[in-house]
What we know:
Chain B: Its cofactor is [2Fe-2S] cluster. Chain B: This is Dihydroorotate dehydrogenase electron transfer subunit. The complex is a heterodimer of chains A (about 300) and B (about 290). Chain A has a single domain, classed as Aldolase class I (TIM Barrel). Chain A contains eight helices and 18 strands. Chain A has helices at about 80-90, 110-120, 150-160, 180-185, 225-240, 255-260, 280-295, 300, and strands at about 5-10, 15, 20-25, 45, 65, 70-75, 100-105, 125-130, 135, 140-145, 165-170, 190-195, 200, 205, 210, 215-220, 245, 265-270. In chain A, α2 (about 110-120) runs parallel beside α3. Chain B is of the alpha+beta class. Chain B folds into two domains: about 5-100, Translation factors (Elongation Factor Tu (Ef-tu), domain 3); about 115-270, Rossmann fold, CATH 3.40.50.80. Chain B is built from six helices and 16 strands. In chain B, the strands form three sheets. A seven-stranded antiparallel beta sheet of chain B has the order 4-3-7-1-2-6-5. A six-stranded mixed beta sheet of chain B has the order 10-9-8-11-12-15, sandwiched between helices. A three-stranded antiparallel beta sheet of chain B has the order 14-13-16. In chain B, α4 runs parallel beside α5 (about 200-215). The radius of gyration of chain B is 18 Å and the shape is globular. The structure holds flavin-adenine dinucleotide, flavin mononucleotide and FE2/S2 (inorganic) cluster. Flavin-adenine dinucleotide binds near residues 61, 82, 225 and 260 of chain B.
Amino acid sequence: MIDMHVTLPGGLHPLTLNNPVMTASGTFGYGVEFTPYGDLTKLGGIVVKGLSLAPRRGNPMPRVAETPCGMLNAVGLQNDGVDYFVRTTLPKLPWREVPIVANLYACDPGEFGELAAVLAAEEGVAALEVNISCPNVKEGGVIFGQDPRQAAKVTEAVKMRAGSKPVIVKLSPNVTDIAHMARAVEDAGADVLSCINTLTGMGVDINTRKPLLANVVGGLSGPAIKPVALRCVWQVAKAVSIPVIGIGGITSAEDVLEFLLVGAHAVQVGTANFIRPDFVFRLVDELAALCERMGIEQWDDFRGTLKV
Amino acid sequence: MNTPACTDLTVLDLVPFGQTGGEARFFALRLERPQWADWKPGQFVMLRPAGWALDMLWARPFSICRISTRDLVIFFQVVGRGTARLAQLRTGDVVHVWGPLGNAFAMEPDTPTLMLAGGIGIAPFIGYAHTHPKPWNLWMDFGHRMPLGCYPFESINEKIMADSHHEEGPEDLSRFIETIGRRMREFRDQNGLVLACGPTPFLRTVRSFALEYGVRTQLSLETRMACGVGACLGCVCRTTEQWPDPAKAGGNVQTCTQGPVFWAEQVTFDDETAAPPTAADVPVQACER
Ligand SMILES: Cc1cc2nc3c(=O)[nH]c(=O)nc-3n(C[C@H](O)[C@H](O)[C@H](O)COP(=O)(O)OP(=O)(O)OC[C@H]3O[C@@H](n4cnc5c(N)ncnc54)[C@H](O)[C@@H]3O)c2cc1C
Ligand SMILES: Cc1cc2nc3c(=O)[nH]c(=O)nc-3n(C[C@H](O)[C@H](O)[C@H](O)COP(=O)(O)O)c2cc1C
Ligand code: FES
């Protein structure tokens, strides 16, 4: 029988997960929403909804639309703000039994640093994940994650204030060369990389002649993006020496192994949580069963063993 | 509030309603009874048939009409891809169901209560009428565009007093709106309670009357829902300064967990205009979404 635990090496304190299956930011609320549907401590880790310094109201409605094998969203980072999270939500989470990863969202590197400092002081936060798929308001709205220099700046700003917490940088797929981005943030001090965030997309209605989302464009997620995500993870894992967390369209235990095969240490499950709210809890069981069937006894024996 | 659960339930049967030839568009879906401790009228479930492939990821929200010792019943209208596929369910098929979700309509047995339903918005009132301890305190006005036989109106009318209003043209609609206004004033004069469920333009009208006449009114909102559990933030509605939690007043709250039932003065419809509604504001199709 396989020991499901995974350790993401690097940093001052390597991050140890109960198993490779985490939940992706923005698709699992703050975790507490799912307590009626499963035992949170069964999960590899929980990445909470993106947190900003001040509460944010988010984008106008409609914010989500179903698309073939996926969905579009432009929620606009509605969240309670980091103080509310730290004071009210975090104490309700079983953080001693399951790593809680805070997902950070800000509009400039300074703000990212401040956020990191607040979260670094929290015992209940196991790691920080930096969402760089957002615009740098002070630099004319360029997306941090699309400019290696900006991405590196944010990484440094967070790293500097993160204390001993491992810093995960979440890469955007909306770039020409994701391996290049990955190396830039690795050099800037990132401990772990996660990829991918959503792909930009849009949908329209020919009858109303309106876009499906009030924001017009949004992020595409779900099984539709899995091939893109696999390609990104494969390229990134080859390019860097820090661990990679694979994200994008995972809906089965087989999908999890696909991401490990191309080099991921762990994965995050996002849109699949909407298929049914107990989805990710069942996935953990299915993964153990699949490893048993396939005779996989150690993650190290399987990870990155793609034969090309 | 009762704790929700996610379970796999078997389809007992799917009964088309009031069809006069052509493709059926209204159905009562009976599922085997879930092992839930309790539920309240106004609450809803998310349904996703186990047989759906990954091309359609989301479940769909439906009001609970009834839960008996034998079954869970929902009532739905085919309006798009998902409901068209639900209409193909057969006895024995398995459906993932999570619920009971959301809050519920206020139930004050001794208060004269007016139920305003537009089209398929009649669904949650079936449970309300059937579980109310003093149904003689209830009255319903039901606006509909399709023939009455398409809707489970009879099952309500046998329990409580109700009027139906068939909308075939613009004059019918303005008459219906007038009726709603008059009835809401009557219930205000009796210190009554108003509950409304239907398409958004209909709810907007009811809300304006509620504020204008000062009658306690609850609205059951409809929004697109991806998760039903408060996680995706795709279903939010805008609160007003009257929202009880000052931190969320004037902000967005999840319809699935903070609602779907809201006090009329505590939420607002984004593009709402200040002017009172006229018949022209509410298209005839409004009551059918
Ligand atoms: C709390 C709640 C309770 C509901 N109860 C019932 C019920 O008892 N019976 C019933 O028939 N329907 C009910 N609905 C509406 C039902 O969920 C939608 O009709 C259904 O999701 C449409 O799915 P579709 O794939 O067929 O339509 P789609 O193909 O997704 O869309 C077709 C059309 O329907 C509109 N639409 C899609 N989803 C919704 C929605 N959730 N609300 C309003 N319009 C929507 C779209 O904008 C579009 O115009 C309820 C909705 C909510 C939020
Ligand atoms: C509704 C929704 C909200 C999201 N919110 C965030 C967020 O706040 N921060 C973030 O880094 N990613 C966010 N994401 C992206 C996901 O975490 C994930 O990277 C992406 O959806 C791809 O994975 P999936 O295909 O498994 O969903 C969101 C995705 C969705 C669908
Ligand atoms: S449907 Fe996802 S938050 Fe309400």
